[in-house]
Design goal:
Elements (H helix, E strand, L loop, with lengths): L1 E7 L6 H14 L3 E6 L13 H12 L5 E3 L2 H5 L5 H11 L4 E7 H4 L8 H7 L1 E5 L13 H4 L2 E4 L8 H9 L10 H9 L2 H5 L5
Parallel strand pairs: 1-2, 1-4, 2-3, 4-5, 5-6
This protein binds adenosine-5'-triphosphate (ATP) and magnesium ion (MG).
């Protein structure tokens, strides 16, 4: 089994995340992609939406794509979500799976600063998908990391959760930036309005 791991805060999930996962699934011939919301991401403020809300929105976003699943391993573990801890747990649990951790190119330059990156690169390959506005500096990466990255071309979508949160605060539209079901969930749950009171 070739499994893609789509890790992120998903605060909230948007069309860029889905297209990234679908692009890598096709390019690398993955059997499944598992969407894994972080509990508390390293180097980032705590998420605005709760873990439960973020997971629910991921479920709604995945919809009928039967190759996509959710994985709540980091939410259940709690604390700061270090990818190396997660991948070590997953490789232990699924010894026959080959993992491809999906990242936007904005994260590639950042890889050297990931916790225990050498160990992580021995547990998984990385699949990098294009995200506009970031210049790649792959030459700065250690060979054991650099050799573990597959690059996949994707139509660039300039969508970020940060921009979506800003729009929610400003009472602006997020329709089509997120799947319809996520849009409806945010409207229905009143989270839309509640979120508008928080700051980034
Ligand atoms: P935030 O603005 O809160 O950082 P985000 O939009 O970057 O949110 P994350 O949950 O941080 O979303 O991202 C999870 C993963 O998805 C990261 O590897 C990120 O690079 C990738 N990603 C996010 N948005 C896009 C996009 N529009 N195109 C390609 N990759 C993306
Ligand atoms: Mg991000």
């Amino acid at each position: 089994m070739k499994i893609g791991i789509m890790g992120g805060t998903f605060d909230p999930i948007h069309t860029g995340h889905l297209l990234a996962a679908e692009t890598v699934r096709e390019a690398l011939g993955l059997d499944e992609v598992w969407f894994m919301p972080a509990h508390v991401p390293p180097h980032k403020a705590e998420a605005g939406f709760s873990g439960e809300e973020r997971l629910r929105m991921v479920e709604l976003a995945i919809g009928s794509q039967s190759a996509f699943r959710t994985l709540d391993i980091e939410l259940r573990r709690g604390g700061v979500s270090y990818t190396v801890d997660t991948m070590s747990e997953l490789t232990g649990k699924y010894p026959d799976a080959r993992f491809h951790f999906i990242i936007g190119t904005d994260m590639v330059n950042y890889l050297p600063r990931w916790n225990r990156i050498g160990e992580l690169a021995s547990l998984t390959r990385f699949a990098a998908v294009g995200r506009g506005g970031y210049e790649l500096h792959a030459e700065d990466l250690a060979p054991e990391v650099k050799n573990k990255i597959d690059y996949c071309d994707m139509p660039q979508l300039e969508i970020s959760s940060t921009d979506i949160r800003r729009r929610l605060r400003e009472g602006r539209t997020i329709r089509y930036l997120v799947p319809d079901k996520v849009h409806d969930y945010l409207q229905r749950s009143g989270t839309h309005a509640a979120y508008a009171r928080t700051t980034d």
